[in-house]
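Late entry, zinc ion complex.
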Amino acid sequence: MVCVHTTVSIRHGVYLKPQDRPGPCRKHVYCTTCGQIKYSGGDRPRDPGYFMNILSEIERYINLEIKKGIPMPRITAVQKRLIARAIEESDVFVDTFSVTGRIQKDVFKRLVRHYTPNLPGDLIESFL
Ligand SMILES: [Zn+2]
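Prediction complete; structure with ligand written out below:
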């Protein structure tokens, strides 16, 4: 079950060191129900629609390359639908309370590669 998250005010937040870089402790808000720390850094999480737009951009790029005569693995409509459903059902897109953009990008990359195994990972990464 997904927690609806009840947060304490920042005044009652906890002091924590940044996890991704050196720096001083900063106050963080947390959920009083599940104990998750709310992510408040600059690498903010996005809606599923943001990632579906990226998928469309990748598809557009592939179609242009194919037009130029460069062989590329096409993304089919069915693959797109399966990827969209997997994104919508994935925890990091359903509940973004403590999720960073990087975590979502890695999950997105894994899901796209799962349904389009011939698509190079660095091609996907270049659109993120
Ligand atoms: Zn919670």
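The two ends are 30 Å apart (CA to CA). Will revisit in the morning.
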